Every structure is written in C-alpha cells, then in structure tokens.
Amino acid sequence: MNRPQHRMNSFDILPDAETHSEGFRANRAARQNVLVEDYVELIADLLDEGQEARQVDLTERLGVSQPTVAKMLTRLTDEGFVARKPYRGIFLTPTGRKLAEEVRNRHRIVEAFLLALGVSPENARIDAEGLEHYVGAETLAAFQTAINADLSQFMTNARNKGPL
User: Fold this and answer.
1) How many Cα atoms within 13 Å fall on the side-chain side of residue 131?
2) Does residue 4 register a pLDDT over 80?
3) Cα–Cα distance between 131 and 148 in angstroms, integer?
4) Where is pLDDT greater, at 30 or 64?
C-alpha cells in the first residue's frame, strides 16, 4: 500500500523542550488572567458609558451567578483592581484602570485584525473576546503592522482573485 508523501515543514518538527514548554507556560499564565481581565474590562466599559458598575450588572452581562461575581469581586478587591463602596457600586483603582486600558487595546487590535481578514463583525467581536487574552506583544504588533499596511484591501483583492 502506497502512502501519500507528506512534505515536512517547520510546523511538523517538534521544538526543543524549553521552547515547547514556553508556549504552555504562556498559555497557563494567560488562562489565569482571563477572568480578571474580563471583569476589569467590563467594569471599565460600564463606568465609561456613564453607568454604575454593580454586581447585578456584571452577573447579567457575564451570564454568571451572583455568588460567582461576589467571589471574583472579593478577589479583584484583594488584588487591588477595584474598590467597592456600599450602595454606590464598583470602581476601578488606578491599577485596575491601567489593566482595563491594556485589555481594551489588545481587544481593539485583535478585533480590527479579524475584521480586516473579512470576519463578520459579530464573529470578530466574539472571537476577539477570547483571543485578546492569549496574544503576545509581538503578535499584536504584527497584527497592527498588517492593519496599518491595509490588510483589509489585500484580503479584498485576494478574495476577488479567486482560486488559482
């Protein structure tokens, strides 16, 4: 029985252990920060729209239970990202505001990149919400470079050419 020939490329070669483990370490670190970043970004969004950020708002928008939000707010307070005032809602500390801006910036770049690729606005928004936490600084810079070089026009031209 003849097996089809498979051309080896750099993706098929197992990297050395240190390089390989770095990817897993970065993924675990990002995963630990996802919830913190999601909460802080949402609180900033609510506050910046002129709304109060209340526990009930977070529960509704994140689609989680009140006890889950309460537990995370305790963590965010302990870690210095938010301050809570009785009967006044939730506020970001300067540290929380800085993190929210960093997350927002990553989100904007990832979403703009996906849109430039031709992903629908709905899917770009949804996918950016997940990807923003896992994209490193070098990749974000490459995304921004591609956007600035008019990736959107390149993709439009590529789609119009059709298959070779």
Assistant:
1) 20
2) no
3) 20
4) 64
This prediction has a pTM of 0.75
Q: What is the pLDDT of residue 155?
A: 87
Phi, psi (rounded to 5 degrees) for 58: -65, -40
What DSSP string runs through 48-105?
A: HTT--B-HHHHHHHHT--HHHHHHHHHHHHHTTSEEEETTTEEEE-HHHHHHHHHHHH
Whole-angstrom distance, CA of residue 158 vs CA of residue 162: 7
> Tokens for 100?
């929210």
Note whether 107 and 44 are within 8 A (CB): no
End-to-end CA distance of the chain: 32
More confident residue, 161 or 5: 161
Alpha-carbon distance 96 to 24, whole Å?
Answer: 26
- For 97-121, write each residue's pLDDT tens digit: 999 999 999 999 999 999 999 999 9
Residues 6+ apart with CB under 8 A from 42: 53, 58, 61, 62
Q: What share of the chain is helix, strand, coil (3-state, %, to 5)?
A: 70, 5, 25
